[in-house]
Amino acid sequence: MPAQSIQLEGFITDSLENPLVNTKVIVTPLLEANGQIKFSISSSKGEYRLKLESNLPYLIKVRYLRMRKEEIH
Q: What is the full per-residue pLDDT of the chain (73 aa) written as tens digits?
């Protein structure tokens, strides 16, 4: 039986709600030692989309060249 998946999607914007283009969203599974790292790069509208396995915890990193790094657990 294949693993079920979920869609992680959204928009990355600055404090004035302008889209941040070419921002990397990097997702690392926390419980799988050899888990596959996935990533997305935001579009010209700041939009990103990732397909992930459900019921797994992930570390999400957002990196933009001119901003500080943010991590969400």
A: 567 999 999 999 999 999 999 999 999 999 877 789 999 999 999 999 999 998 889 999 999 876 566 666 6
Counting the structural domains of the chain, the total is 1
Instruction: Detail the DSSP E strand segments found in the chain.
Output: 5-11, 24-29, 38-41, 47-53, 58-63, 70-72
Q: What is the chain's alpha carbon radius of gyration, rounded to the nearest angstrom? A: 13
Rounded-to-integer distance, Cα 57 and Cα 73, Å: 8
In a domain? residue 26: yes
